[in-house]
TrEMBL record:
It comes from Dyadobacter frigoris. GO terms for molecular function: DNA binding. Residues 1-97 form the HTH hxlR-type domain. This is Helix-turn-helix transcriptional regulator. InterPro entries: HTH_HxlR, WH-like_DNA-bd_sf, WH_DNA-bd_sf.
């Protein structure tokens, strides 16, 4: 359990994984879904998730530059677990927001 929480336990990592989901996402979309926070937080956590093999980052050599993030097979395995946690939250709390 300690290893799991070290990998995805930071407040925003599960939100990032959930936001990316089954499709590629650009940084701006991920940052917007996280609410009003500095760009530093998603940047750091995306990098950690990439280092842990949960997400992949693909940079396109275009002007302006474009970067997309997507879940690896390892990351895709987390989606049903996050969905179950979201459903649990909906049953037991009045909120139900992804980040709440």
């Amino acid at each position: 359990m300690t290893g799991t929480m070290a990998t995805i336990g930071k407040k925003w990592k599960s939100v990032i994984i959930y936001t990316i989901g089954l499709k590629r996402q650009r940084f701006g979309i991920i940052h917007t879904k996280m609410g009003i926070i500095s760009r530093k937080i998603p940047t750091e956590q995306l990098k950690e998730l990439e280092e842990d093999g949960i997400i992949k980052r693909e940079a396109f050599k275009e002007v302006p530059p474009r970067v997309e993030y997507f879940l690896t097979d390892k990351g895709l395995e987390l989606l049903p677990i996050l969905n179950m946690l979201t459903e649990w939250n909906l049953r037991h709390n009045s909120g139900g927001e992804v980040g709440g």
